[in-house]
Amino acid sequence: xxxxxxxxxxxxxxxxxxxKQGSKLVPVQYGSIQTEAHTDPAVRLKxxxxxxxxxxxxxxxxxxxxxxxxxxxxxxxxFAVGQARGVIMLAAVQHxxxxxxxxxxxxxxxxxxxxxxxxxxxQQMVKMFLNLSAVPKPDDVADAxxxxxxxxxxxxxxxxxxxxxxx
Length: 167
Description:
The chain has 5 helices and 5 strands. With about 170 residues, the protein is of the alpha/beta class.
């Protein structure tokens, strides 16, 4: 199963594709979609949407896992991230993909085993799980891979325990 993990944003969207092969997780590709500050927000959303479509077309995931928006004190940032999540989800749905959403707490729990883990702990576990030589940069990329790992673990658990889907 190939999973596309997404850490949404308007300036930087982290993405990561991993393959689950039995109990092994294999990195396929990871990186970020970046948009220029001071560009019209609608243009930035179009860039995120188009880049997401290109990535889905190229790497053909079976599922998309995206980080849920958590409360942010900066309302402007929260709205922009919410809009970016929307265009990313639209691209996924247009490709017929299932979408799973995970809170930061769920991702930390799945990757580190502790819901209040520090960002550095999550990054080190991503590096270890995927047998990478270094922690992916920027942080958004490591976060996206963590979301993909969370889904790979959760998907297997949901299918082993109840046979249902966790979305």
